[in-house]
Amino acid sequence: MLNASHLSNATSDLTHLFASLLENTEVGVVVVDGPDRAVYMNASARTLLQSPTGELPDWVAPHVEPMLEGLMRSEQTVERWVREEMVLRVRARSLDRYSGMTVLEITVAQVAGGRHVADQLARSLQIPISDAKLLALLWRGMSNDEIAQTLGVRVGTIKSRLFRLYQRLGVKRRPAAVLRAAEVLAA
Question: Which domains does the chain have, with CATH numbers?
Answer without folding.
Answer: 4-111 (3.30.450.20), 115-186 (1.10.10.10)
